[in-house]
């Protein structure tokens, strides 16, 4: 079955509409059919990416004890947000650079909710009216334990946010709160989760965040990263699959080897 997607191909400036058959791994553009691997995708989003911490039940439970310690002494009441800046963004198929001084990276498989129109103080019931579609994001991080300060150095390195390969139209996703997420490293299943484990549903998260900040058209909200993200090293191949949306694939390379961006 063909579904509508919005994609950006390498060397082509505007984002364009296409059709995909996820089962057959086919992409249709202007009536022509291509295999996914025949195309070179660029970053399909245009706005700011906002990440959400502690929104998966088990991830929250793992850190709950630390939340009662100094300086906070209590769990957060509002969503805990951070930004993946422009320098972190890379496309599907691009190389993820691992800093020379690091041995491993955490792979943060995340559902990205793409905003379709200005969203401010929206209610939970109408929240999905403000969504254009969904994409796959790998929220790459240097392993770290601190919950007391924004992990900018660990999360905001160049190339630490692969996105894509496209934006799947929201009409193709039956329920964003019931999507299985699988992460394979070198073909081996290393993580399986589901958005039914979110503390705040997609709708609730959008309502709570837009209560105090406006999301603009093109912005992307990550609903969270499941507990125990797989750790990888140089030369590992990463395959993140989210049901009804597609597959995001990238390979880890040292910073020196990643010059040029793709294998």
Protein model, in words:
- There is one protein chain.
- This protein is mainly beta and 263 residues long.
- The protein has one domain: Fumarylacetoacetase-like, C-terminal domain (Fumarylacetoacetate hydrolase, domain 2), CATH 3.90.850.10.
- Helices cover 9% and strands 36% of the residues.
- It has 3 helices and 18 strands.
- It has helices at residues 57-67, 152-155, 202-210, and strands at 3-7, 16-21, 26-29, 32-35, 49-53, 80-84, 89-91, 95-98, 105-106, 109-115, 131-138, 161-169, 180-185, 188-194, 220-222, 231-232, 237-242, 246-254.
- The strands form 3 sheets. Strands 1, 2, 3, 4, 5, 6, 7, 10, 11, 12 and 15 form an 11-stranded mixed sheet that branches. It has a 5-stranded mixed sheet with strand order 8-18-17-13-14, with no helix packed on it.
- Strand 13 (180-185) and strand 14 (188-194) form a beta hairpin.
- It is globular.
- The chain starts with a strand and ends in a 9-residue tail after the last strand.
- The relative contact order is 0.23.
- This is 4-hydroxyphenylacetate isomerase.
- One of its GO terms (molecular function) is metal ion binding.
- InterPro entries: Fumarylacetoacetase-like_C, Fumarylacetoacetase_C_sf, HPA_isomer/decarb_N.
- Residues 48-252 form the Fumarylacetoacetase-like C-terminal domain.
- It comes from Virgibacillus pantothenticus.
